[in-house]
Structures are given as structure tokens and as C-alpha cells.
Amino acid sequence: MFLITKLGLGLLLCLVVTTAGQSTDASADRILGRWLFPKKQTCVEIYRENGRYFGRMAAISASCANDYGNINNQVVLTNLSYAGNEWKGGTMIHPSSGSKFDVEMRMTNANTLVATVYKGVRFISKELVLTRQQVTN
């Protein structure tokens, strides 16, 4: 009887550990998908690689291509990690200058992502509100 109880406790512990990790991944993965920048001329696709989140340019308008050149598929977000209810510790790279800025992101709802971009020191920042690009069939 003791062996069965010990085995049952071990299985229960494995189940709790496994499902806890999955729920965290599901919460963190809410950021995945395509997001439109405020002027809706460019779109970034956020993806996960090795537990971190990255973003590459997925679509750009003709006027944006004139300003920045061919930046399609260029990585512009790197190394975001999920902590609490935010994605932190990442870098945003300006597509034409290559300048790097610290970035943090949070979702206000399922279709709105707020990126806070820090220029040098923490009290100089800019917020960008991105909207989820709806998938059309």
C-alpha cells in the first residue's frame, strides 16, 4: 500500500509540474502572431525561439519601402522573455539606422499590444500601440 501511495504521489507531482509549465507557455504565447504598427503601414510577426520572443518585419507598405528599403523579414525585436504579465529584457532595432533600444511589452487585451521603447535612460521612453492583424481566409 505504501508503494502505491508513493507512486501515486509521484505521478501527481509530475502532472502538476507538467501542467504548470504549459499554462505559463500559453500565457506567454499570447503575443505570438502578426501585429500592425500604429500607422498600419508595417507589420511585425512575433515568434518564439528557444523560450524567447523575437519579431521580424512581415509586411511593409510601398511608402515604408521607399523610406527604409527592403526590410521584409528583417529581425527588429530580439530576446524578449515573459515575466509576470509582460515581455521584458528585449531589444528593438530601428530598421534603417540599426540603433538598438530596450523594449518591454504588455497586452491590454487580446488584440492590443503596448510596446514601451526606452531611449538610453529609463525615463525617456515612447509607447507604441500595436494591433493584432486579423487573419483572413
UniProtKB/TrEMBL annotation:
Gene3D superfamilies: 2.40.128.520. InterPro entries: DUF2147. The keyword rRNA-binding does not apply. Keywords: Signal. Residues 33-132 form the DUF2147 domain. Residues 1-28 form the signal peptide. It comes from the Bacteria. This is DUF2147 domain-containing protein. The lineage of its organism: Bacteria, Pseudomonadati, Bacteroidota, Cytophagia, Cytophagales.
